[in-house]
Structures are given as C-alpha cells and as structure tokens.
Amino acid sequence: MHLFNLLDPKLVWFEDxxxxxxxxxxxxxxxxxxxxxxxxxxDQIFRLVEQxxxxxxxxxxxxxxxxxxxxxxxxxxxxxxxxxxxPLRDREQEVKIYILILTDKNVSSLYLNTVAxxxxxxxxxxxxxxxxxxxxxxxxxxxxxxxVISIKEEVTVSDIMTADPxxxxxxxxxxxxxxxxxxxxxxxxxxxxxxxxxxxDVNILHYLAxxxxxxxxxxxxxxxxxxxxxxxxxxxxxxxxTVQQVMQKPExxxxxxxxxxxxxxxxxxxxxxxxxxxxxxxxxGIITAMDIYAKVVRA
Amino acid sequence: MLKMLxxxxxxxxxxxxIITEWINKMTIVLLGGFLVILCRIMTQDKAFSxxxxxxxxxxxxxxxxxGVARETGIFQYAxxxxxxxxxxxxxxxMLLMFAVTAAISAVLDNVTTVMIVIPVMILIATELxxxxxxxxxxxxLASNIGGTATLIxxxxxxxxxxxxxxxxxxxxxxxxxxIILVALSSIGILYLLFRKRMRVSNxxxxxxxxxxDKALITNRPLLIKSAVIMALLLTGFLTQELTGLNxxxxxxxxxxxxxxxxxxxxxxxxxxxxxxxxSLFFFMGLFMIVGGLKESGAIAKAVPVVTRATGGDFxxxxxxxxxxxxxxxxxxxxxxxxxxxxxxxKGLAGSYxxxxxxxxxxxxxxxxxxxxxxTSLGTAANIVSLGIAKxxxxxxxxxxFLRYSFLVTFVSLVVSTLYVGLRYLL
Lengths: 299, 426
Known about the structure:
heterodimer; A: 3-stranded antiparallel beta sheet; 13 helices; B: mainly alpha; 0% strand
C-alpha cells in the first residue's frame, strides 16, 4: 500500500496565522468532520486525542508530531496534516508538522506502519524539507506520491524491539553481571563472546540460582530447612562462576524480520517473556511480551 | 542354520552396542528386535508373542504407583526422619539409611529411589561438613541389594518370576532371608571401611536435629490413598497363589485405582513423566531379540554346551550361575543377562537329573541383581547416582567406586553361594 493513497489534499492544511497547538488540533478535527460522517463530535474526538497524548506523547525528535486516536467502528484510516508556516513549540520541542491519524479500534498494524512511513519521510532530509515547503496541499500529496512511500503491510519485531541493548561478555563473572543489572536497572542481558557474536541470555534468576546447589533442585521441597544459608554458596561462587556457565540459550531464536505473531508464538511456546533479537549471529535488540502489548495491542 | 547365524549376529551386535553405548541403548535394542523380523527369523506375530506382557504391565503398574507415591513427599520424609533418629551421627545415618533405602528399593524402582535419597544424603553430608562420597556409595549398594529381596524389587526378578511362574511369596521365602544376610554383611563391611572418616562437631550435628519434618508430607490425603493401595497391592501379591492372578493384573489394578482416586489433572503428567517408556521399549526389543535366538534354534544348540561345561553337575551349574551372571551383569547389565539366561536355563530342564530347577533361578536372580554392584556402570541406579554426585562436585571415579563396591559385592556373592549351596544343594 502507498502512503499517498491515504492522503487527501482536502485534509492537508498549511497554517500561516501562528495558531497554538490546541487550535491546530481542533482545526484538523474540524476538517475531518466536515468530510467524514463520524459518530463522535469534534469535541469528543479532541478529548480522546488529548487523553491518548497524556498516556504517551507522540512527538518525534525530527519535529514531527503524530497524535492519534482509535475510534469504535470507524473501519477506516483517516489522516489529516497541518504544516505551520512557522514551527511552534510544543512541550519543550519544536514541531514542524502535525499529522493526526484516526483509526479503527481493532486495527493496529496499519496505524503503526503509517506512523513508520511518516517517520521514514522525516529521516530523509531532502524530502522532508520539500514537503514542509510545498506550495499547497496538492503539491504536498504529489511529492508524497512521487517519493513512492510504501506502507509495510506487516509490523515486524524490529519495529517494536528495544534496539542496541546493553550486553555482557560471556567471560565476565556473575558478580559483574549482577552489578551491571542493578546499576542499569536491567532484568535481561544478552551475552556475547569475544568476537561480539551472541551466545545466550541471562537474567537475575540465573545469578541467584548459582546459590542453589544442584542436589537441592532434585528435591520435592525444602521446607524442612529452617536455618539453611544458601547464599553462603553464592558469595563463594559469584567471583569465579562466569556468565557463560549460567546463561541460557532459547530453543529457537527471534529474528528482527519476524512478524509480531511469530514472536508471540515463540514466547508462548517457550514460555519466555523476553528474547534477544538476533540478526546474522549478532544481537540487535530485545523484545518483550510487554512490547507487544504496549506497542501493538494498545498502541 | 543361516537364520541361527543371523539371530546370533543381531544378538551379538546389539549386546556389544549395549556395553559400549555407541548408539542409544533403547534404539539399538528395539532396532535389533525388528531386524529379527526383517531378516525373516520369525514373523511379526511370533516376535510380538515373545514380549512378556506380564513383565511390561507389571513394570508400568509399579512405575505409576511410584510416580504417585513420590508426590506425597513420603520418601524425603523418611530420609530426614532417619537422619534425626540417628541423632545426626553420620555413621548411624549412613547405616540406618542403608536399611531404609534397601527397604524402599525392595518394593519400588531402584533408580527413582536413589534419585530421591542421594540428593538428601549430599545435603546432610554437606551440612555435617563431611564428604558425601561414603553416603552416596552406601546408598547405591543398598538400593541394588534391597531390590534383590522381592519379586518386584528389581527387573531381573520380575523377568524370572514371570517367565518361570514364581510368585511373590516364593521370592519372599527364598530371596528375602539371604538378602537380609547380605545386607548385614555389607553394613559390617561399610562400617569398617568408613567409620574413621565420620567425625563431626556437635554444632553441625545440631543443624540436622533442627530440621523440621512436619511439612515434608506435602499431600496427606494422597499419602493415605497411596498407603491403602500399597497395602492392597501387597495383599494381592501375597495371596497370588490363592487367587491365581498374575502380577501384572495386580499391579495394574492397584495403579489404576490409585489414579482414579488421585487428582484427575495429574494423570497425564504421571503417565508421561513417571512411566519410563525408554526402559519399557528396551525390554520389548530385548524380548524379541532373545525370542529370535530361541526360534532359530540357537538356544537349543547352546544347551548341550552348557551341560558339558558343567560336567552334568547341577550343583556346579547352579553355584556357577551366581558368579557367571554376577560378572556378566556388571558388564552388560542385569536385564540383558537375565533375559538371555532365562530361555537357556529353561532348556536345561532335561539335562540334569533334578526334580526342580529352582536353585538355578535363585542363583540367576542373586547373581544378576547383586552383580550390578560390582562396578560403577553395573546398573542404571549406579550411573544415575554417580551422575548426581558428579554434578554436585563429587566425582567418584570407576576405580574409587570399585575399591568399595568390589569387596561388598564379592562378599555378597560368597554369602549367596553359601546360602544356595547349603539350603538347596546339600
């Protein structure tokens, strides 16, 4: 699908009166409402947009603001664009373009991919400044059409993962690991070897479990041990046991080009919430079940 | 003739693979079983008819009962309770636990028994600040010795009992007394071997005494159900001669009643986790391979050879059987040895002028079960136990194990020889 197919020149607005942010949003909503039959009133839509913004702002460092709202039974994706002739300050940041997206409550991937497509535009300096400087709405849409901006049909893991995570070398001790995790507030660390290749994953349980003797893991229960000090063993071991000795490797890997459903499938199958994302033997990110929830299901 | 050579070739190659473990044991044995059919030594129907289903279902039944019983926490309770009864004295713990483990193994599977008691023994030794190695070795020996005492204690006994029609009571009357003697002599030897290394402080001893055993029984209702079923099971076995019921029927009924009474959700877990399908397939393959030997006439050919080798002397043959099966089972494993000797001994029926072959059967049972103690590789229980020891930082080498096991096993076989000789062959 091409992005320009979702754009309507009637919903592209070059604003030159220096209106504040709220007025711009209201103006965009009014334009949408005059061309589309919506169940919600403009005021209601504005409140929904604000509410969504409060949960997580959609300002991007390139000066693009992409507020959006999901409407019950809309069954469409409507995009309205406003380019203020003079960039304005919005929450400590300079905004050059507002893109308001209305989507259906049940469709999540198209929205995400539309956002991704606009973000791609903002990373292309030539195209981005040409659009901001377009003469009129028709020229704006024409530029988008000529740039052939396609919307990916499918969201992949690379779209929602946390890229370039903090990693640990397999030869470090588990004490180093625990300190790193506490310092950086990590709960999952990919492990790499000296060549930088990914070799496994560790979490804090791997560290703690080093204090549990192997024979104890075979017991039915240990409720008879009242005075046992398992962490004596941990203190003795933490400086000699290496990350490599405690790390785990999932049965099957998650790659950045995996679809969300593929990633979810692996999480469920392996009963594991967090995965390192691996491309060509190197770790490029971390994906968690919460990423899927927050960035796809409730996006 | 060609069939016989083929059957022998399959037999030899399989047994070499069992010893060397070049290929997974179960896979090679089951493959051997079907090769017997592929090579037209016998038809599939014939081959399947050699599988002793009484053995297979008896094993399944006992595995299910064990699987449910271990969920109750009773075995760990027994171990901790014993340690406290022994007042935390390591030597007393070691010797009392010998008796406890032997008793559990007499009724239940040896591998599962050691998987429960060995971790507890390592914990206790670590808490006492002494090496767990004597405890581990003692438990392995106890488990194999205890298993010899009853029909259901060890697979060789199950095989013999089923093939020959010997009842639970027969085993109790003939093997249990000698096993008590063997156990006593072994405890004596272990006492002499280990008594000097067992000094611990009062403070450490007190830690063991502080173990709270109150919460160890994790599922009391299930424990009561298991106890009732165990009582019914033993009654079933003891009255076998009156009722004429086969062991598999008794064990499977008990197991299934227990499953009916326990949590429905756990049934599948027990069937998949507690039933050792790998061993069961191993048995099936073995039955087919040995069946091939019999059908092809190889066993019949071997009978006169054996008779001649013993000079027709039944006494020599019976006592020799203890040592022959003892040594062989430490190399090949008790089950393959027993499975092979059963048709051979049956074939000997007419060769000696004796009323009953029974002494020979008791010799085979004693030799193959106790022989498993000779080396660290003798039985699955040995391998599993030493694996646990190694994972916990107490590797016990082949030679180190042999230093203790050889003496205990040698004396066990001497006691057995005297017993069989004096009781049956005077």
